[in-house]
Design goal:
The chain is mostly helical. The protein contains ten helices and two strands, in the order ααααααβααβαα.
Length: 263
């Protein structure tokens, strides 16, 4: 029992502690979405920028582990898809964050120490680095990995209210909405409304209602960006979903443990 309690504490630290800490940190993530002028936007916060992105590297890996632990003991097609997608996320998303976050930050810190004329030249180099196709590819692969992993996990961990077909149909629709937004960059109020409506509908047709709806929100929002507002909101949704699933798991496991103790 003593060993099990330690395992439970460690599990909770990863499953619940990781999204909670990451969400708090990302509230203070400097936001910069323009394609040029990154030096001027970040140079005044460069020390925090680099520190944050160093901290995010292990936290993104722990976030992947968190989702993997939520699926422990679940064996179905959706769970398998989710686990494969978790691997895609953990390979590519931290790589993107290290390249653009720490790499850009290091270049900006160096550029700040140069004379003004050289700083202008290096600023153009930093902008080109910021827009690197390789960085975009890493970000896209990592984001898609997260989106599919959490969406598939929501299906794997859910039980249909009436039939499995509405769940599958909404999952396919959610994937299309997310993919089209990623490709076309259509993160508009209409897109956000579609996200909310789809997540609510998903929660209606599957149980546990709140957890699966929140997981779908997390799939949408965090795959857009980890910067505010979408990043912290997506992580908050994931944290609340994980909290309900963990409490539900505990309520099921406690009677089983008591029965084994008396047998």
């Amino acid at each position: 029992m003593h060993t099990l309690s330690h395992r439970l504490i460690l599990r909770r630290l990863v499953v619940l502690g990781t999204p909670f800490v990451l969400a708090i940190l990302d509230i203070f993530h400097p936001s910069f979405f323009a394609q040029t002028g990154v030096f001027q936007a970040i140079s005044s916060q460069i020390n925090w920028w680099i520190t944050l992105h160093v901290l995010q590297l292990p936290l993104f890996c722990l976030l992947a582990l968190s989702l993997y632990l939520l699926l422990k003991g679940v064996q179905n097609v959706a769970a398998t898809i989710s686990r494969i997608s978790i691997a895609i996320f953990v390979i590519f998303y931290p790589a993107f964050d290290g390249l653009i976050g720490i790499g850009t930050g290091t270049l900006i810190r160096y550029a700040a120490s140069l004379p003004a004329a050289q700083r202008v030249f290096l600023g153009n180099v930093i902008d080109a680095f910021w827009q690197s196709p390789i960085a975009y590819l890493l970000a896209a692969l990592g984001s898609v990995g997260w989106a599919i992993a959490v969406l598939a996990a929501a299906i794997a961990l859910s039980c249909p209210t009436w039939s499995r077909w509405p769940v599958i149909a909404l999952a396919v629709f959610a994937g299309i909405v997310n993919a089209s937004a990623q490709v076309l960059g259509m993160f508009s109020p209409v897109w956000l409304a579609a996200v909310v409506v789809t997540s609510i509908a998903f929660g209606v047709v599957a149980r546990p209602h709140l957890a699966v709806g929140l997981l779908l929100m997390a799939s949408f929002l965090f795959s857009v960006t980890h910067a505010p507002p979408f990043g912290p909101l997506g992580l908050a949704c994931y944290f609340l979903a994980a909290l309900q699933l963990e409490l539900q798991r505990e309520s099921v496991s406690l009677p089983t443990a008591r029965q084994e103790a008396h047998s």
